[in-house]
Amino acid sequence: MSHTVTAKPETLLIACGALGQEIVTLIDILNLENITVQCLPAHFHNTPDKIPGGVEQKIKEAGQRFDHILVLYGECGTGGKLDEILEREGIERIPGAHCYEFFMGQANFKDLFDAEPGSFFLTDYLVKHFDLLIIKGLGLDRFPQLLDDYFGNYSQLVYLAQTDDPELDATAMAAAETLKLDFERRFTGYGGLKDILKEENNGSADHRLLA
Predict the structure, then answer these.
(1) In a domain, 5, yes or no
(2) What is the domain range of residue 115?
(3) pLDDT-derived band of residue 200, with 50, 70 and 90 as boundaries?
(4) Which of 69, 115, 124, 172, by CA, is between 20 and 30 Å from 165?
């Protein structure tokens, strides 16, 4: 008697670099396999016009090597261009306007944003790399006079915390002071990201994080 062994489907996650560490951590925690993560540069967070082309390039490079591709970006300020590419390619992305809003859930995020639309959000990763991605990334280290141009329409900095870390809390509070914004911390854990990755679960860990 012969048995046919069916290979488990290979999944490619194309993700924002600002989410890469959290994604890999969850893949380990959930003991997933057959998942490859490819991240675009985290500084695209500041230049959303680069996101659609970057995602499209990753899709083309993938060719037919994967059974399923999921894009871990929200609309992220691309003006609909990302969705145009994904619709053409027949590929899904996570729902929502921002790639980090699923940490607190769409409904809760919407309630917060409706109550205070002038909210600027940081996650654990963005807090850790605040100086590199925000201060230097926006050129505020060289041109501090641009602070009001970038953040004049914001009123508060909301730290969506994935972990309980007093040092990160202090850094996030300092970031709010630097940007001259009120500070609010909300513990979210990994939120909906955990649920998304569970849906891609095929067994035990077998993944790669590619820059």
Answers:
(1) no
(2) 106-187
(3) low
(4) 115
